[in-house]
Amino acid sequence: MKQIVSILLVAAIGILIFSALYFSDETLKFNEYGNVNLDDRVSEKYIDKSVNGNTEEIIFGETQNAESGSANMVTSVVVNYRSFDTLGEVTVLFVSALGVGLLLNGKRKRKNLKDAPNFILKQGARIIFGIMVVFGVYMFIHGHITPGGGFPGGAIIAASILLLYLSDDEFRVKLSAAKAVESTAGSLYVIVGLLGIVLAGYFLQNFLPTGTVGEVISSGVIPIVYMLIGLKVGSELSSVIDGFLTEEVEG
Amino acid sequence: MNTSFIILLIAVPLGAAFLSVLVKKLGKYFLGAAIGFNLAASGILAYDYVSPVIYEIGGFKPPYGISLVLDEYSLLGILLLNVVFALIAIMACKYIKKYEVVLSVALAALNGVILTGDLFNLFVFMEISAIAAYILTTMNKNIKYTFNYLVLGTLGSGLLLFGIAVIYNMFGSLNIMDIQNRMAIISYPVAGALVLPLALIFTGLSVEAKLLPFSGWARGVLKDSNSLVGTLIVSAFSAAVLLAFGRLIDSLFVMSDSLLIVFTVVTVGTLILAEIAAFSKKNLREILLFSSIAQSGLVVALFLQGLKSAALLVLINNVISKMILFTLAAKIGEDNGTDKLEDLKGVFLKNKVLGFGFTAAAMSLIGLPLFFGFIAKANVLVSLFEANNIWLPMVILIVSVIEGAYVVRMLTTLWNTGEEGELAKAEDAKQYKLTNKVRLTIIITIAAIAIVAAGILPLLQMNDWFNFDILSFLTDGLGGV
């Protein structure tokens, strides 16, 4: 009975939300996917890189010293125009990982795996581990040119660590090292922001030349910030993985 | 004025949090430094304040970049927040161990919640402060309630984010002022289209603001909490969330009449039901937590009526008196192993100074003359009458009677050992403890004196303290009371 009432309630709320979004009589409606008029939205200026008044067209591999040097528009928004939100999101992950650490603290040892891993699995996983780490690093170094960036790059690195955990029942990350990387990367992100105040005037303002759109060494502080995010996310998720795959030692 | 202090209020505690993971031993010094810096910085900002400042993060002009807004409203908010946060941290410093980093992050996030002028950024800071609050409540050692809080809180943030997404889809901007301007230039009534996003945002914020029926987490989390966690949640967190709520209501809530009625019923219902619940409770912390829920309802109801300064006065009164009351209630509970009223008869006879502090805060809470609460309540009633509102003052007065009844019952029990009519003797209260702490006594005494002083001193004489007219901003509409 309870389940039926819940299902009906959810369905009613769903219909209510859907009808409010798509069938309201007002002229001002929820824009359907793909039908947004870009001219009167802030995102248009992010695409044209024209927040500070630039009128020139942005051409890949040619435009120099654009206000945001990243060829990847999403990266422009995430690490340049709205970098402060990203600092916040990094903090969300930081404080969540911290919570896991606080709850699962104390002396811990590895949980036993259901099937003991054999030699071939262990060695094979190590080879794949190396490739994955390189791919993760590639991901966050190229975040301003290609799809990707610090968050997915960090997640890939953490996934490679997870692979080692699953293929080797004795493997553990050095937690103190993970904490050190996490803390250094987080502090450096704030310091990059503070350098913005000192060198350019505002917190998190870009203070390096933005170079040519599309080159690896370009777009000012974006690659630096994305590297820091990648290292931070990778080390944080690794210590969370360690928390979940270990158990407390009695005594 | 150096506007960089605005961003440093957030950046410094955040940096301190990141650094304290690296050097764990120095964690408490980093936290202390961050709290001290924030106190100083908010003081400097208040001292130098001339007119509203918009700080453009990243150097991108609004609405394109994220901006922080320092106006009278947020200035008052950060002053209140940073002072209250510092006092709570000093009074409850023995609980801080291991939680320094979380507290630093919470301090940064709460300042962000008050200062931000951007909807999505508000969501991010609400999220950070909520996660910090979940972690802090694990100190209660009752994971079930923390988990309950986590689930409700996450659902609330989800709804808030959904509401913000709908608003962004409709107006193409996240900057609160910009959205307000875009709403103003639309030639037809915008209220009808806004019903869904406003309802979502209202519900999402209601979870953290403890409005009924979304405050199911509050009782479990707060009833056994210590003087750090509980006091932070009922005063500092509550202040920041309500201030953000007030800012959104003030700037974005273009409501149709029926939506306004729904919101008003929720808030006024919270006020009435929570006061009745507080009346029926027998434990100190439970009484106070329900009173806190009721006050949140009143504050949001006043914001909905457009009475910003009245709402702010009630908010300030509630935050400061709850800080004193909850700290002492948690301390009494911890010293005696229970905070059941009937087991604590005459506990204040053992420590009259703390007892007087508690009494002053309680009197202010119910709004007796000579206390700051009276100014707040008088302002509320006068401004409601000026707005030709008759029914809300009636509700508030009736609820005040309930509030008065349980506060007086609480005070008589805590001061009196014997039966009614008998003279109370200190010997009878021997079995109870209320250990004296110099720090606690000093802070409670000063806060109590401040409440009384703010209730007695003619408010306007204190205007010279700041360059801007903070008090006349507050008493605007008070009609010379």
SSE topology:
The complex is a heterodimer of chains A (about 250) and B (about 475).
Chain A: H1 2-22, H2 43-48, H3 73-81, H4 83-103, E1 108-110, H5 119-141, H6 150-167, H7 175-200, H8 222-244, E2 246-248
Chain B: H1 4-22, H2 27-48, E1 53-56, E2 67-70, H3 72-91, H4 100-115, H5 119-137, H6 143-171, H7 176-184, H8 191-209, H9 216-222, H10 229-252, H11 257-280, H12 284-304, H13 308-336, H14 352-366, H15 372-386, H16 391-415, H17 438-456, H18 470-474
Give a verbal description of the structure.
- The complex is a heterodimer of chains A (251) and B (481).
- Chain A is mainly alpha-helical and 251 residues long.
- Chain A has 8 helices and 2 strands; from the N terminus they run ααααβααααβ.
- Chain A has helices spanning 2-22, 43-48, 73-81, 83-103, 119-141, 150-167, 175-200, 222-244, and strands at 108-110, 246-248.
- A two-stranded antiparallel sheet of chain A has the order 1-2.
- In chain A, helix 7 packs antiparallel against helix 8 (222-244).
- Chain A starts with a helix and ends with a strand.
- The model of chain A has no long low-confidence stretch (mean pLDDT 89).
- Chain B has 481 residues and is mostly helical.
- Chain B has a domain at 258-481.
- Chain B is 70% helix and 2% strand.
- Chain B starts with a helix and ends in a 7-residue tail after the last helix.
- Residues 462-470 and 477-481 of chain B have low confidence and may be disordered.
- The chains are: A mainly alpha (251), B mainly alpha (481).
Mean pLDDT across all residues of chain B, rounded?
A: 87
- Based on helices, strands and strand pairing, what is the structural class of chain B? mainly alpha
Rounded to the nearest angstrom, the radius of gyration of chain A is: 23 Å
Spatial shape of chain B: globular
Seen as an oligomer or otherwise, the chain set is heterodimer
- CA-to-CA gap between the ends of chain A? 47 Å
Radius of gyration of chain B: 22 Å
Q: Strands of the biggest beta sheet of chain B: in what spatial order? A: 1-2
Enumerate how many helices of chain B there are, as a single number: 18
Listing every helix as H and every strand as E from the N terminus to the C terminus, the arrangement of chain B reads HHEEHHHHHHHHHHHHHHHH
Largest sheet of chain B: 2 strands, antiparallel
Largest sheet of chain A: 2 strands, antiparallel
| Number of helical elements of chain A | 8
Query: Helicity of chain B, in percent?
Result: over 70%
The total count of strands of chain A amounts to 2
pLDDT averaged over residues of chain A? 89
- Report the order of strands and helices of chain A: HHHHEHHHHE
Q: What is the count of β-strands of chain B?
A: 2
